[in-house]
Structures are given as structure tokens and as C-alpha cells.
């Protein structure tokens, strides 16, 4: 199964609570922190909600 590397590139300060919860749920804490998540429909949906805050690449 493919994996996605998600990196937080913008701050969550001043963002709606649901976006903050998505960022925290993905395991991202600080700017430039990264996590590797499975590429499935649930993760794609969460990433779509916060696509203006993160950078997404295919994991190696």
C-alpha cells in the first residue's frame, strides 16, 4: 500500500477548531513536522480539509 508524507507548512493559529483537530489527529505538532500516513480515502479526506496548511508527497 502506498504511503503519504504530510508536512505542516503553515501555522494553525487562528484556524477553525475542526482544522486544528485534523492537524493534531494526523500527529502533526509544529511547523515543519512530518508524518507518514497510509494512502486511503480517510486520510485523503482529512488532508483535503487542510490542504492549505500542509505539503503532501509520496513517501519513499
TrEMBL record:
InterPro entries per record: Ribo_uL30_ferredoxin-like_sf, Ribosomal_uL30_bac-type, Ribosomal_uL30_ferredoxin-like
A GO MF term: structural constituent of ribosome
GO biological process per UniProt: translation
Source species, domain of life: Bacteria
Keywords on record: Ribonucleoprotein, Ribosomal protein
Protein family: Belongs to the universal ribosomal protein uL30 family.
Subunit structure: Part of the 50S ribosomal subunit.
Protein name as it appears in the record: Large ribosomal subunit protein uL30
Species: Ligilactobacillus saerimneri 30a
Organism taxonomic ancestry: Bacteria, Bacillati, Bacillota, Bacilli, Lactobacillales
Amino acid at each position: 500500500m502506498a504511503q503519504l508524507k504530510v508536512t505542516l507548512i503553515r501555522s494553525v493559529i487562528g484556524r477553525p477548531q475542526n482544522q486544528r483537530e485534523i492537524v493534531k489527529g494526523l500527529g502533526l505538532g509544529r511547523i515543519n513536522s512530518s508524518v507518514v500516513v497510509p494512502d486511503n480515502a480517510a486520510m485523503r479526506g482529512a488532508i483535503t480539509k487542510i490542504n492549505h496548511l500542509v505539503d503532501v508527497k509520496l513517501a519513499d
